[in-house]
Design a protein that fits this description.
- The protein has about 240 residues and is mostly helical.
- The chain is built from 9 helices and 5 strands, in the order αββαααααβββααα.
- It has a single domain, classed as Iron/manganese superoxide dismutase, C-terminal domain (minor pseudopilin epsh fold).
- Helices cover about 45% and strands about 10% of the residues.
- Helix 2 runs antiparallel to helix 4.
- The chain is globular, with a radius of gyration of 17 Å.
- The two termini are about 30 Å apart.
Length: about 240
Amino acid sequence: MVNSERRAFVKQCVASIAFLAFPFKNITFTKGRISPEFKFRLPALPYAFNALEPYIDSATMQIHHSKHHQAYVDKLNTASWSGFEFSEHLSALCKQINETSPAIIRNNLGGHYNHSLFWNLLSAQPDVLPAEFSRRLNAEFGSFEAFKTQFSEAALKHFGSGWCWLILTENGRFKICTTPNQDNPLMGIAQVKGKPLLALDLWEHAYYLKYQNRRAEYIQNWFSIVKWSTCEALLNGMEV
């Protein structure tokens, strides 16, 4: 299989997985209200709880997914959505968050989107860095190792809970940034805006059982399970 065919095949597979993980079809959205039968739901993991060991332990994955992420979904389903224009994509909802948005929506929509993306950016099997994505990283940062160093430094320096991102900015550049709590770069309140291509959860519940206060070790090991084909699919237009 030639490289172009392989990239197209990978893109199709990733998009299919994403659709299965985030099914919003057959839902009727109405501006300013949400239909009584609509419910956000927790997406299934595309792997077993223990599949990411030894980098992320089974207990952490189970608690992180079935407790923390589920809590964001449950709280989101109690929110009043007056003034929101609904979409089948969580990303489109995130873009409507501004300074006046209710905290229950800002925090829990962010938590739902961020984690839904995060799960699909992890792989139980080593993933090859796609050629085009690698070229873009090299063009922006000089090399993959330079990108890895800058991303790791940003994640390590971020104070408290939050996320570290690689985003595609409006002018088509790759950029590293962080956000506090469950904010993300899609939101109108973000200091640096863009489409997320890569996301690292910096909340302690994502790593504390295994790593305790060793965030640097968590970050280093996380690079061993990144699903780079999902990053490329996001670059090529996939939405969450």
